[in-house]
Amino acid sequence: MTSWARPFGVVTVWFDSWAYRPDPAKDPLRVDWARVTPFILLHLMCLGPILVGWSWAALGVAFALYWIRAFAITAFYHRYFSHRTFRTSRVAQFLFALLGASAVQRGPLWWAAHHRLHHRNSDGPKDVHSPHQHGFWWSHIGWITAPANFPTRLDVVPDFARYPELRMLDRFDMAAPALLAGGLFGLGSLLGGMGVNTSGPQMLIWGFFISTVVLFHATCLINSAAHRVGRRRYATRDQSGNSLWLALLTLGEGWHNNHHRYPVAARQGFFWWEIDVTYYVLVFMSWIGIIRDLRPVPAHVKLSAAARP
Are the C-beta atoms of 102 and 177 separated by less than 8 Å? Predict the structure, then answer.
């Protein structure tokens, strides 16, 4: 790429993630600052309340979007696309993938492929976000900035890569966040015009930027913290642990040792006292026909000889 065209190339890969081509002459594990500029700006925009203030309306929307998109990430990006723990229709599959993509955690194919590779190599030398191999901050956020981890490994998710709508969503993964951000700005402007104490910029800052960044780091804590803290009921080959506070923050993902013991179960809180809100919602969705065939946790798995007292 010539020098005059390089800036346009950078902008292109912001919107077309499949257009990115790492420079083989450079370290694939370095931080590619140009590529991650939007990610940096996402965090800087969280300073926006200094200018736009706050309102109960903006806080309510931010709170709601945190939990709605957290469900899309854990139920569909994780339990469905990564582990196929239940079945659903092609329409529902796409709609929840679209909702998950609005959380700015890349596309569903990219997310699922990396997570499947994580389970193959959990806490081993080839696990790209193990805190035991690379340290806490690299496992939490650093690995996402490295060129080696930008491409979508379609060969790891051939079951879902065959759907053209998912490939399109994965390729243009910035489209869903952009639509959500624009919609929130419009909503805030509309409500402000109707006399509600809010505005377009305020709703954008709280409903999109702050809600998105908080959700992003809550999700990343499962990579970093859930492999360092928590109770290890099962003697898995990794260092995953069970943590109530992580489970509450992520709608059930904190029962991580359970999950690594039996990843293909729709339920991660194996026992009744382990709160797993995502599973409760999935059960309700199965009652009304949106999903089906929830995969249970076999009794011999829950009470296996490898369980620790």
Answer: yes
136: tokens are 């806490």
Residue 207 near residue 189 (C-beta atoms within 8 A): no
Report whether 72 contacts 111 (CB < 8 A).
Answer: no
Give the model's pLDDT for residue 21: 80
Strand stretches in 6-142, DSSP E: 87-88
- Residues 121-180: pLDDT tens digits? 999 999 999 999 989 999 999 999 999 999 999 999 999 999 999 999 999 999 999 999
C-alpha–C-alpha distance, residues 51 and 218, integer Å:
26
Supply the pTM of this predicted model: 0.93
Measured on CA atoms in the order 135, 119, 115, 65, is the torsion positive or negative?
negative
> What's at 178, amino acid-wise?
A
- Distance in angstroms (rounded) separating the CA atoms of residues 59 and 100: 20
pLDDT tens column, 98-138: 999 999 999 999 999 999 999 999 999 999 999 999 899 99
CA dist 176 and 183 (Å) reads: 11
| Angstrom distance (rounded) from CA 257 to CA 230 | 8
- Hunting for tokens 């806080």 — which residue is that? 59
Contacts 24+ apart (CB under 8 A), 29-35: 29/146, 29/147, 29/148, 30/146, 30/147, 31/142, 31/145, 31/146, 32/145, 32/146, 32/147, 32/150, 34/10, 35/10, 35/145, 35/147, 35/150
Residue 308, helix vs strand vs coil: coil
CB atoms within 10 A of CB 116: 17
